[in-house]
Amino acid sequence: MKKSVTIKEISDQLHIPRTTLNEWKQQYSDFLPSTGEGRSKRFIDPDAIEVFKTIAKLKKSDHSTEQISRLLQNTVPMMHQIDHQEPAPFLNALDRIAAEIKKTNELKEKELQIRMQEMELQRQFMNQVVEQAAASSLGKAKRWWPFKKK
Questions:
Q1: Is the dihedral angle over the CA atoms 108, 113, 119, 122 positive or is it negative?
Q2: Of these four, 17, 46, 139, 145, which has the most CB atoms within 10 Å of its CB?
Q3: Is the Cβ–Cβ distance between 43 and 49 less than 8 Å?
Q4: Euclidean distance between the first and final Cα of the chain, in Å?
Q5: CA 7/CA 16 separation, integer angstroms
Q6: Predicted TM-score (pTM) above 0.70
């Protein structure tokens, strides 16, 4: 079992003020493995310490909060405390969303087929119009000059 530490212990170990660590704790809580709530919150050692070290290095390199969050998302797994009873409703919600997406996709597919049929009918009509115009212009030769013959 991994050891847990307080903000004060992390502060002493990393030589970073507790107020700074508390600010980072609020900003990057999704990336900090912890147990407990509120004042009794403790962080999992050495994982949380590594995350705090990474944040400190990035802050010293003048990275913004958003940049640090993006970098942490790519390197540190998000730490969500999930109750063992919670996945069932979550999975049910995902199933409902998947069913809605499937239904929407089927409707869009039908709509696409209808539009393609309409476009084909329009293309056929245009071809008929062009053929009729070409046939009617064959009988009448138009002159390209504006004056009349004498």
A1: negative
A2: 46
A3: yes
A4: 112
A5: 10
A6: no
The model's pLDDT over 3-61, given as tens digits with 9 standing for 90+, comes to 888 889 999 999 999 999 999 988 988 888 888 777 778 888 788 888 899 999 999 98
Every domain of the chain and the residues it spans: 4-75, 83-134
DSSP 35-86: ES-GGG-EEETTHHHHHHHHHHHHHHTT--HHHHHHHHHHHS-------TTS
Alpha-carbon dihedral 58, 63, 69, 70, rounded to 10 degrees: -110
Encode pLDDT of 130-142 as tens digits.
888 877 766 565 6
Domain 4-75 carries which CATH code? Answer: 1.10.1660
- CA angle 30–25–17, rounded 5-degree value: 155
Answer for the pair 56, 71: CB distance below 8 angstroms, yes or no: no
User: For residues 125, 127, 129 and 130, what is the CA-based torsion angle, rounded to 10 degrees?
Assistant: 160
Please report where in the chains the tokens 């709530």 appear, as a residue: 37
